[in-house]
Amino acid sequence: MTNKVTLTQFIIEQQRGLPDASGTFTLLLNNIVTACKKISHLVNRGNLVGVLGSAGSENVQGEVQKKLDIITNDIMVEALNWTGHLAGMASEEVDEIITIPAGYPKGKYLALFDPLDGSSNIDINLAVGTIFSILRCREGIDPEPEDFLRKGAEQVCAGFVLYGPSTMMILTTGHGVNGFTLDQDIGEFILTHPNMRIPEETGEFAINMSNQRFWEPPVQRYIDECLQGKEGVREKDFNMRWVASLVADVYRILTRGGVFLYPYDLRDRAKPGKLRIMYEANPMAFIVEQAGGVCSTGRERILDIKPTGIHQRVPVILGSKNEVERIVSYHQDAF
Ligand code: F6P
Ligand code: MN
Q: Residue 255 is part of which domain span?
């Protein structure tokens, strides 16, 4: 077949349309792609290469680190720190911001990533992924943490790779969302899902029901109405899915619609939600909005939040426009 569009070709053609594109971004993205191909290969090999199981350590958020959390973080850092395209990085697995080693040139972008999202699923052979966000920064600087703390609306690119039955990359540079499938035979991501759009209507929700007693009244009301089905105010039956890998839950919503909630809950006032804004909520919000969906905390648009910490947590409600807008209106009614 001659009409297969590779991710590289797609990005180069997209960049050609931009007057001040220097090609640096394309090269940066290619380095991310290389890292994700390595991760895809490792995840696929699993215990054949002894990478499953716990590393016996905790990350800055107090979560038990899997061996693969650490290995995939190293793969990302080592694929990107020498390139000259980045001024710095931030990762879910690293407490402080990651600087560029002395001797390497610094570039005009910042990369933020969750190297292995959903890693609690790795040992049970379910889908996991890599999430990334790219910000521009002043060229040549040694960035401070404050230089990373920018609204999600300023992202120049966001994407995630889903290591599922197929390995897929979902990408936006602010001109819609496109999906690419890794062709293992030739080692290239091929455009297979152009211009992905989230259906506005849905009958499917995703939430961790075990936290129900901690939710605020608007979320209680919304889920309660879904559970009432045809007999309730919504007058239709809803279905529920919860993969517990954000990447897989968002991919499902991009494919067939739905709503995902990891809402504010009253368990721990110090943790307003579970997901981290810089490398989970922001990139997913950028992708979801570019696909015609909505992403909110319930009280405000995620992409408008001015972050205060690299590992800051935030409530996330995302997906089909009509459902998320309904949940937001329930918050407006309540507060
Ligand atoms: O990275 C956090 C994460 O693993 C997400 O991928 C996922 O959506 C969520 O946490 C699952 O949370 P829980 O363990 O509460 O179901
Ligand atoms: Mn994660």
A: 204-334
CA distance 331 to 306: 21
Report residues near ion ligand 2: CB below 5 Å.
114, 117
Task: Examine the fold and report which residue of 160, 193, 226 is the final residue of a domain before the chain moves on.
Answer: 193
Residue to mutate, 240, 275, 280, 284, ligand 1, most ligand atoms under 8 Å from C-beta: 275
pLDDT digits (tens, 9 = 90+) for 114-171: 999 999 999 999 999 999 999 999 887 899 999 999 999 999 999 999 999 999 999 9
Q: Are residues 43 and 134 in the same domain?
A: yes
- Tell me, using a 6 A CB cutoff, whether residue 263 lines ligand 1: no
Residues 276-314: pLDDT tens digits? Answer: 999 999 999 999 999 999 999 999 999 999 999 999 999
- The answer to whether residue 284 is domain-embedded is yes
Of 132, 241, 274, best ligand 1 pocket probe by most atoms within 8 Å of the beta carbon = 274
DSSP string covering 39-86: HHHHHHHGGGGT--SEEEEE-TTSPEEEHHHHHHHHHHHHHHTTSSSE
